[in-house]
Specification:
The protein is an alpha+beta fold. Helix content is 53%, strand content 12%. Helix 1 packs across helix 3, helix 8 crosses helix 11 and helix 9 crosses helix 11. This is PaaX family transcriptional regulator. One of its GO terms (biological process) is DNA-templated transcription.
């Protein structure tokens, strides 16, 4: 497990996103607390995190012979979007894909929406090119549209599918729109934490399910932030020492080795079966 602390609520999100959705979307409280204990989260901390996720509308209580929680209907599209970003965007975008541009203007009387827009666009991977003007690779256009509608922010924004035409050294300019050093620091933190794990697993002929689970959930929890911080810019626009490539390869290696035995372990703990 990584040394950096991960919030119990983030770990629970990963458990639901990676496993519960495949097992009917519901886990009993008792089984969830058992799984969290394997991640060094004690019962009170797990219950507190469950309560916070309930208040946020991520989890809903449901009794199925035992007290438990299922993912709320509102949470499903958020997790679906996460799947696309985490597992579907491992390769950089292409320049020929074009750009998604968001332009917004928010009245001063509603400036809280301005903050929400900046936060959400940054989280999606948009870079700020001028006041109220944000840019991302074109493949993020659909996710941006869905997010703006879901958050009730669409009335403040104009979304464009754009092409770059002229008048700038684009690689040099792009580096001022995104914080490349901060992104690379996050990738370095990931590879430093999980490089030894990957090396150790490579020496094992088979991975035990409980051990796989203890590695996989924190690993995926730490990784799933990165595809949002990194918009996946075309390789032509990135520094030559861009460390995302090695980090993605490590993530893919760990995912391929750990995901299946982790799921089997969750099934053994919960007694749940995969749904179609």
């Amino acid at each position: 497990m990584a040394d950096s602390p991960l919030r119990p609520s983030s770990l629970i999100n990963t458990v639901y996103g990676a496993f519960a959705r495949r097992l009917g979307g519901w886990i009993s409280v008792a089984d969830l607390i058992t799984l969290m204990s394997e991640l060094d989260v004690d019962g009170p901390a797990a219950r507190s995190a469950i309560s916070r996720l309930k208040k946020k509308g991520v989890l809903e209580p449901e009794r199925r012979g035992a007290t438990g929680y299922r993912l709320s209907p509102a949470a499903h599209p958020v997790f679906d979007e996460g799947d696309r970003r985490i597992f579907g965007s491992l390769e950089p975008a292409k320049l020929s894909d074009g750009w998604a541009m968001a332009v917004f203007s928010v009245p001063e009387s509603e400036r809280s929406y301005r903050y929400q827009l900046r936060t959400r666009l940054t989280w999606l991977g948009f870079g700020n090119i001028a006041p109220g003007v944000w840019l991302a690779p074109g493949r993020l256009l659909g996710d941006a549209r869905d997010m703006l509608v879901r958050r009730g922010l669409s009335e403040y924004v104009h979304l464009f599918a754009a092409d770059y035409a002229a008048f700038s050294d684009l690689p040099g300019t792009v580096s001022s729109w995104w914080d490349f050093p901060a992104i690379q620091d996050q990738y370095a933190t990931f590879t430093d934490a999980y490089g030894p794990v990957a090396a150790g697993l490579a020496q094992q002929p088979e991975t035990d399910g409980a051990e796989a689970f203890r590695h996989y959930v924190p690993m995926l929890t730490q990784w799933r932030r990165l595809p949002y911080l990194d918009p996946g810019l075309p390789s032509e626009l990135l520094p030559p020492d861009w460390n995302a490539v090695a980090a993605r390869q490590m993530f893919q290696q760990l995912h391929e080795v750990l995901a299946t035995p982790s799921l089997r372990h969750v099934q053994q703990v919960t007694g749940l079966e995969e749904t179609a």
